[in-house]
Design brief:
Layout lengths: L2 H16 L3 E6 L1 H5 L3 H13 L3 E6 L2 H10 L6 E2 L2 E2 L3 H28 L9 E2 L4 E5 L2 E2 L2 E2 L4 E6 L1 H9 L3 E4 L2 E3 L5 E3 L2 H11 L4 E6 L14 E3 L3 H10 L3 H15 L4 E6 L5 H7 L6 E4 L4 E5 L5 H13 L8 H7 L3 E6 L2 E11 L4 E9 L8 H15 L4 E6 L3 H5 L4 E2 L7 H4 L9 E6 L2
Parallel strand pairs: 1-2, 1-13, 2-10, 5-10, 13-15, 14-16, 20-21
Antiparallel strand pairs: 3-4, 6-9, 7-8, 11-12, 15-16, 17-18, 18-19, 19-20, 21-23, 22-23
Helix pairs in contact: 3-5, 4-5, 7-9, 8-9
The protein binds coenzyme A.
Coenzyme A binds next to strand 20, helix 13, strand 21 and helix 14.
Length: 436
């Protein structure tokens, strides 16, 4: 089958999930100057045409820098923040004005080439960000460098309801009529929080956040950010530190998911939004629950969860001894120190298949999607073990599995070592799911 057929099928759940959601996207000045920017805009227009409500926040650091250099002026920084004097502010206004026009032009061009050709794409901007001066820090007056005081979320939502893309420059105005140069991270974070956005997307020079050995961190709960933040600061990885700080602040403010993705990788945005594994870093609110593989210390908790179901005949009985021996086959969901759900994977490597067994969710935690979370985990484990299918024997949960892509099969279709142990009295039904 063609790859695109598969890709399209797999992206469908994401397309549905993203429709009518609000994404705040931060485009640093470097990303706009990069040759891949055309592709990035193209992908943003695609998201817009799929019904995503988009707020774009752009930065202008290198563009301001270039103007200062051309005028023979020096940049002044303190604590990695620009000090904006009157001459610098004039460069800021010039850079921001030109960037705004360039982005609007690019968006208009892409719309004409998109599936929504003929439909009007409106880009809206305005005085949505109220600023205040950063003031004097360590005795240094930051002058026209400001911070966000308020975001007019009502005004922005109104435009989003009207299907406009909202464009926010790195500037804000004070009620006294002054203009301030703001950090785009500050605006993006505050906008995401005040709009109660579903996602904050931050473009980066790297593929995402990197660990100490330079590898991509795929997922980072906000609670675990502290050590990485310190490392970035110690190593003077300013961009990484700023992005992580922005993501953590947004998570604390209630944004559930922040994605940090590359601006030079063609298709990074779409890969992150429409595939299971993505290609950047996801910073999320962190769960006070975690999904992990079980350890020997979990045997007691696991027994408490599965005993009642064994007594009802829903699950096959396992002795403590057996459970101890098979503990590494189990994945569990732990919440506040309590095991609330489990599932096991028994591999049959010769047949490139595995048995999903002992799937159970504590009755108090049903209807919370934990069954799906564990099924996903088991499928992931099976794939990483090169398994091509999963099978399951069940007496009372047939429909649950069928609704998740399992199909009835015969005993001959499962490994003979398992089939020979089939308990005819129990009379379980057998189901199989092909993994792709
Ligand atoms: C099956 C189980 C793991 C699902 O738990 P869960 O993730 O909390 O699922 P939910 O309770 O949210 O149910 C999700 C959907 O599956 C349905 N469902 C739940 N149990 C079902 C069952 N036994 N058969 C068919 N459908 C079932 C629910 O009605 C719900 O559908 P709906 O939203 O359309 O009503 C859980 O019900 C359980 O632990 N059951 C007992 C153990 C068991 O049967 N394990 C399978 C052994 S092979």
């Amino acid at each position: 089958m063609h790859d695109y057929v598969n890709s399209l099928r797999h992206s469908l759940p994401y397309i549905n999930a993203h429709r009518d959601r609000t994404f705040v996207v931060m485009l640093p000045g470097e990303s706009i100057a990069h040759e891949n920017f055309g592709n990035t805009v193209h992908d943003l227009v695609l998201l817009h045409s799929l019904g995503v409500r988009l707020v774009l926040v752009f930065g202008s650091r290198p563009q301001i820098e270039a103007r200062l250099t051309a005028l023979g002026l020096e940049s002044h920084y303190h604590q990695d923040l620009r000090i904006t004097d009157a001459a610098t502010l004039s460069c800021v206004l010039d850079a921001v004005g030109q960037l705004r026009a360039a982005i609007e032009a690019r968006l208009s061009m892409d719309m004409a080439a998109s599936p929504m050709h003929g439909a009007r794409l409106r880009v809206a901007g305005g005085n949505f960000v109220t600023a205040r001066p950063l003031g004097v820090i360590d005795g240094i007056d930051f002058q026209h460098t400001g911070e966000v005081r308020r975001i007019d979320s009502k005004g922005i939502k109104h435009l989003l309801d009207d299907r406009s893309i909202v464009l926010l420059p790195p500037m804000g105005y004070s009620p006294t009529g002054e203009t301030f140069n703001l950090a785009s991270e500050d605006i993006a974070t505050r906008a995401a929080i005040e709009l109660q956005a579903d996602k904050l997307l931050l473009f980066s020079a790297e593929h995402g956040l990197l660990n100490a050995t330079g590898q991509l961190i795929r997922e980072l709960p906000a609670q675990q950010a502290k050590q990485h933040l310190q490392r970035f600061k110690d190593n003077k990885q300013i961009e990484q530190a700023e992005l992580l700080q922005a993501a953590v602040s947004a998570c604390r403010g209630g944004v559930t998911r922040c994605h940090i993705i590359s601006y030079h990788l063609d298709g990074a945005l779409l890969t992150e939004m429409f595939t299971r594994d993505g290609c950047g870093t996801l910073v999320d609110q962190g769960l006070f629950q975690q999904v992990r593989e079980a350890q020997i210390e979990d045997v007691g908790g696991l027994l408490e969860l599965i005993r009642p179901l064994e007594e009802q005949g829903v699950l096959v009985r396992r002795s403590r001894d057996l459970l101890e021996r098979e503990i590494s086959q189990f994945s569990i969901v732990e919440r506040d120190g309590l095991i609330i759900a489990c599932a096991a994977l028994y591999p049959f490597p010769e047949q490139a298949t595995g048995e999903l067994a002992c799937l159970a969710v504590h009755p108090d935690y049903r209807h919370g999607g934990y069954g799906d979370i564990l099924l996903e985990r088991i499928e992931q484990r099976a794939r990483s073990l090169q398994m091509q299918s999963l099978f399951v024997l069940t007496t009372r949960t047939a429909h649950w599995f069928q609704e998740r892509g399992f199909q009835p099969c015969t005993l001959e279709q499962i490994p003979s070592t398992k089939a020979s142990l089939y308990n005819f009295q129990r009379n379980s039904k057998v189901f199989r799911k092909t993994l792709n």
